[in-house]
Amino acid sequence: MNIQWFQHSDNWQDVKNAAMNTIGKAAGKYPNDTWKLRLLRAEHSPIRKLVFSWRWEDLPYWVSVHFVRHKIGIEHFVKTQRSDRTGIPRDQLPQGALVTHECTANAQAMITISRKRLCSAAAPETRQAWQLVKDEVAKCEPALAHCMVRECVYRGFCPEMFSCGYTKTEAYAREREAYLSDEL
Hints:
- The chain has 184 residues and is α+β, with helices and mostly antiparallel strands.
- The protein has a single domain (2-150), classed as Gyrase A, domain 2.
- It is 45% helix and 17% strand.
- The two termini are 28 Å apart.
């Protein structure tokens, strides 16, 4: 699997203007990295103005299904398996059939999806697919990538019914400390 393409336009000025409007002030100047990180961590509504689009290629159908379960702040466009379009009886296609899966999502959705899909409880293939997206985000929006963490790092504890034990490791302590840091 791979990311065929990834798109994002820098519209932080729009985000800043919306944030200022919510507190009854006029538009502000373009935000610095510290302001971006603080707004993303607070998950205030203007972050939903940050939009990303990408397409996975050769994603196993069953992994695609994991992502389709996310529906708030994200749109999915998955290659069909309809028999009249593929010429193959749908019931003969295995769960491992490869599909293209295109998405458009806002920053809030990216944070929320990361909490579930970077977790060790997620299938390794699903974590890998989401990590590819996070890696692309890191290239253009490092503050957002900084906030795209697994559930235990986000919450400070593991809420899963059957924990993997990661919260008891040195790696977790380092990851949690980095997440809480203002350093990108």
